[in-house]
Amino acid sequence: xxRPAVGLVALSCTLSAGLLLAGCGSxxxxxxxxxxxxxxSLPAPAxxxxxxxxxxxxxxxxxxxxxxxxxxxxxxxxxxxxxSRTIATPVxxxxxxxxxxxxxxxxxxxxxxxxxxxxxxxxxMTSIYVTNVDLPKPGKYWLLAVPTGKEPLGALANLVVPPTxxxxxxxxxxxxxxxxxxxxxxxxxxxxxxxxxxxxxxxYRISVAQALATHVPFxxxxxxxxxxxxxxxxxxxxxxxxxxxxxxxxxxxxxxVEIYERNDPALGFNAWVKQWKLxxxxxxxxxxxxxxxxxxxxGAFSTDELERDIRTTLLASGAPS
Length: 321
Description:
Blueprint: E1 60-63, E2 71-80, E3 91-97, E4 106-114, E5 127-135, E6 139-147, E7 155-161, H1 208-213, E8 218-222, H2 233-246, E9 253-257, H3 271-275, E10 283-287, E11 293-298, H4 303-315
Parallel strand pairs: 8-9
Antiparallel strand pairs: 1-2, 2-5, 3-4, 3-6, 4-5, 6-7, 8-10, 10-11
Helix pairs in contact: 2-4
């Protein structure tokens, strides 16, 4: 969920090959571009700290994710300049440290992912950076992002892992058997199931509880296109629909669930959002045929990211059966 940055410090940095960490990962897609340096990880040469890699300039980060846990985390963000214009290059190099004066302990590569589908809902942005970061334990971490080709531009952001989890289901948890509404439960009335302009009936054929009972892998997105405060829910539902069509010949089922009681924000979150303990929206979960959550996507994503994720976690030969 994209929100104004709170407690973020935006800085620029002058980077040279000698200052870069030795190691670079990615968000899951190969790219001809990569972070400079050699393969590996840890630490910054000559004890360089994150602050050493950064100077001072009003370039900012707008976070797209906020719920972090110990372990692997999907992190998304925008980078904006002084005029609030987005800076968008194919990749951005990312460093993570426990503090500004600490040596970065990880480096990774953030890919710029397109958001939305042609002719679909329009959100506040057309692309977003996405990466995966391992955060070992609760605490506040610092992330430095530098769009490649835009050096010395860069920005810092905080990633906070709270001591007590938010309650949002985590990777490895069992999905909650919610009896989410379907075409059958509403006598075929799509208007009761979705606030999308042109809802696809296929997203409302099966409930989460039914998918779990029949042991089919599924993807469920909690989002409200019409009332979304982050304005990315419409594109998320459009992209869920688009990927469902791409994978129509697979066993994976796709489910969209609105978040408000009777689709009325004045009535608050509905029972299913409360069961899943979702404090924000949109949220999307990938669940295998055993009912285990294999990935979770907070906020916006691209159709390619979602399809890659499904093929890797739910359809690959090594995926649980």
